Amino acid sequence: MRRAASSVDDGLCSRKTVTSCVSIGAFHAADFTAIRDDRASAWRGKLLAMSKPTFLLVHGSWQASWSWDPVRTRLHAAGYPTLAPTLPGHAPDAERSAVSFADYESSVLNVLDHEADGPVVLVGHSFAGAIISRIAELRPEHCQALVYYSGFVPRDGESVADNLPAAMLEAIRHLSSSSGDGSVALPYELFRGGFVNTADEASARLLYARFAPEPCLPIFEPLALQHNHRHGIPAAFVACRQDSSLGPGVFHPGQSSRLDRPRLIEIEGDHEALLTNPHALANALLTAAASESVV
Questions:
Q1: 29-54 pLDDT, tens per residue?
Q2: pLDDT tens digits, one per residue of 219-268
């Protein structure tokens, strides 16, 4: 595991040094007396985090890293480190016309390869289910578990578009063709009725203001997943009972049934439960990470 080989220097001592000291009984309580309380607290926090996997959280369409903030707060409180990159083309003023699925992959792989300390619990929301499927294809040894939260589970050679209902696919094509850069802006009526249908009107308006147009090209790109779901990586699927974004049954059992014996976790919430019911979603992720089928 990468965790065993890495050495984190926080100004006190490296993780490798700490491990050695503890193993020979040379790390005495008196050694803490010269360490300021704040640095000692930080050290103890890092030592605790060593025993828990990192959640690598990949956001869905029209969103960015910010959408995970309420869930991350709760995961941190439970002692789990998190990483949540913003995918290319999802910043407010980003260029979107040429963004590809490979750009998404590179963005997540960069975080996985250079920022994650050991294997991760890889979580994909909605469109990002396809992204974590590809990451598992490319870096299976770095994935402790896969969690699909209302996520797409494409088969080899399929695109996300191949898994969309006809009405949604038609809407995406129309919205893309009528935009200046080919991107897809989510209409408020669809957002309100299908994505945040459990939120009050004021909250829905505030959230909608943060949603950005979605790059179109990655939606239609076929994905190479020849070995996916055959790497022996445990998987979980989080299904939201009030999710009406694509119609009944599209995500569960439509997508969840494509996984090999996943742990199914059902929660109260709509498609954007990470924002409208983050407590329930965070608990679901913690359940997935702690389950015998995952760790």
A1: 444 344 444 554 444 445 444 579 99
A2: 999 999 998 666 789 999 999 999 999 999 999 999 999 999 999 999 99
* Distance between CA atoms of residues 273 and 277, nearest Å: 5
Task: Tell me which residue of 288, 285, 255, 293 sits closest to 269, measured CA to CA.
Answer: 285
Q: Do 65 and 122 share a domain, yes or no? A: yes
For 128, phi then psi, to 5°, come to -70, -10
Q: Is 79 left (phi over 0), alpha (psi -120 to 50) or beta?
A: left
Residues 41 and 165 in one domain: no
Which residue do the tokens 């909250």 mark? 203
Note whether 142 and 285 are same-domain residues: yes
Give the closest residue to 219 by CA, choosing from 258, 180, 272, 170: 170
Q: Is the model's pLDDT at 114 over the cut of 70?
A: yes
Closest to 41 in 3D by CA, of 80, 9, 10: 10
Task: Estimate the crossing angle of helix 278-290 against helix 69-77, to 10 degrees.
Answer: 50
Label residue 94 exposed, middle or buried (CB < 10 Å: 0-12, 13-18, 19+): middle
Q: Do 120 and 152 belong to one domain?
A: yes
Close Cβ partners of 200 (under 8 Å, ≥ 6 residues apart): none
Q: What is the CATH number of the domain that holds 97?
A: 3.40.50.1820
Please check whether residues 209 and 262 belong to one and the same domain.
yes
Identify whether residues 183 and 246 lie together within a single domain: yes
Residues 197 and 123 in one domain: yes
> What is the number of structural domains in the chain?
2
Residue 295 domain-assigned (yes or no): no
Q: Are 160 and 168 in contact (CB under 8 A)?
A: no
Task: Tell me the residue type at 74.
Answer: R
